[in-house]
Amino acid sequence: MGKDKAERKRIKAEKLEAKLQKKHQKLENAGKFKLWRNHRPFWGATLSVLAGLLILYIPIQLYAIAFVPGSFAFVGFLFGGLVLILGVLAYLYPQFSTVLGVIIMFLSILSIMGALGGFLFGTIFGIVGGALCIAWKEQEIPHLPDQSKESKESNHLIDHSEVASTKSTT
Amino acid sequence: MSGSVVIGYTMKKKFFAALFAGLLVLAAMGGIFGITGTAFALPLGGMGDFHVQFEKLEGKGFSLMPQIGETGDSNQAPLVRNKIDSATVYGLLIYKDLKLPTGKWIRINIEGTQPTTIKGLIQDARYISANLQFNELAVEEHNTAKMSAEEAFKNNWGQSADTVTITDGKIVTDYLFQNMVNLQGAKISIQSIDKPGEVADSDHSSGIAQSGSGGDNGDSDLGGRLPDTASNTFMFIAISSFLIVLGTAIILRKRMFKGI
C-alpha cells in the first residue's frame, strides 16, 4: 500500500516535470511578453484588476453621496480600490501571490456590501482571480539541452574537423 | 549547457480548493442575508428606472431637494432627491423591467410581506404620486445668484420635515441608496412581460396581470400572485446549496470517476 502511494507520487512528480520541461521548451522561443508572463500569476492578477474595476463601477455612480459623513457608499470605493491595487501588486510582487490572493478573495466577497459586488460579476472574477493567485507557484527545473540543437552542433563540428583533416592531408 | 530554469505554473488542486473555499464563504454570506433579511450599504443605481410602491411609509428626518441625474434614457434629467434618516415601510413593492439580449422583457419583483425598516435612505425620483403628511414642514429658498445654472437648480430651494407619513406611494426612481435595510419576509420573483409597464395601477395584482396577459409564460397567468417559491429564504438557501454541491463535485471529481 505504502509502495503504491510512493509509486504514484513518483509518477506524478515525473509527469509534472515533463509538463514543465515542455513549457520550458515553448518559452525558449517565446517573446519578451511571454517570458515576463511566466514569472508572475498573470491571469490571476488580470482577473483581479478586472474585478476591482467592476466593483468600483457602482460607488463611482454614487460619488455624490460617497463622501458624505456616515455614508456607506465609501465602503464600496474602499473595497473596489483595494482589490484593484492588490491586483496590480500581484504583477509587481509575484513572490507574495498567495497572501495577495487570499486578501483579494476576502475583499471581493465583502464588496457585496457597499458596491453590490460589481453586479456580482466583480465578486466572481475576484474569487477566481484570487484563487489563481493563491495556486500560482514557481518551480526550478534542470535545464535539459535541446536534443535537435545538440546534434546540429555536433554535425557542424564534424564538418569542420573533416575539412581540417582533408586540408591537412592535401 | 547545464543549469536550472524557473517556470511559473498553477497548481490545479490548490486552485480548486481555494475556489471552493471562496464560493463557500460567498454562499454563507448569501445565506445569512437570506435568513436575516438584512443588508447593509445596499446601492441600486446605474441601472435605469425602477418602480417603488408601498401602502404606507412612516419616516423621520425628511428632506427634499431638486437634483439633476442620469435616468434610463438621459444623461441629465431633472429629478427630485428625497432623503429620510429612518423609515418603516408597509406593503413595499419594488420592481424593475429588464430587456434580455433575446429581446424579451422580464420584471424582477421584490415584495416585503412584513414591515421593512430602512436607515439612511437616499432616492432620486422622476415621478412621485402619493398622499403626504408632514410634521414641522419647512420650505426654504437660498440665494443662488452667484452659482452656475446646475448648482443653482440643485440648491435654490429645499424642503424638510421632522416626520413624514406617505400613503399609497408610487415612485419611479433612478437612484436608490440605503445605509441599512431590513426586509423581513421578502418575496423575490421574476416574471415574463410583453413590454415594460408604466406606473402600475393602484391594484398591484391587476397591474401585473395586465402587463403579462399576452404572455405564454405560466407565471403571467397567476393573475398577479407571486409564486409560492418566491421567498428570500428558499432562494438564498437554494443558491448556497447549489454552490456547495458544485464545489464538492469539482474537488472530488477524480475520485468520483475513478471510484477510489
The number of distinct structural domains of chain A comes to: 2
- Gyration radius of chain B, to the nearest Å? 24 Å
| Approximate strand percentage of chain B | over 45%
Mean pLDDT of chain A: 78
Outline the structure in words:
The complex is a heterodimer of chains A (170) and B (260). Chain A has two domains: 1-38; 42-135. Chain A is built from nine helices and one strand. Chain A has helices at 2-28, 32-38, 42-61, 63-66, 73-92, 97-110, 112-119, 121-135, 147-169, and one strand at 136-142. In chain A, helix 3 packs antiparallel against helix 5, helix 5 packs antiparallel against helix 6 (97-110) and helix 6 packs antiparallel against helix 8. Chain A is elongated and about 60 Å long. Chain A starts with a helix and ends with a helix. Chain B has one domain. Chain B is built from five helices and nine strands; from the N terminus they run βαββββββαββααα. In chain B, strands 2, 3, 4, 5, 6, 7, 8 and 9 form an eight-stranded antiparallel β-sheet that branches. In chain B, strand 2 (38-69) and strand 3 (77-90) form a beta hairpin. In chain B, helix 1 (12-36) runs antiparallel to helix 4. The radius of gyration of chain B is 24 Å and the shape is elongated. The interface between A and B is large, with 49 and 37 residues. Strand 1 of chain A pairs antiparallel with strand 1 of chain B.
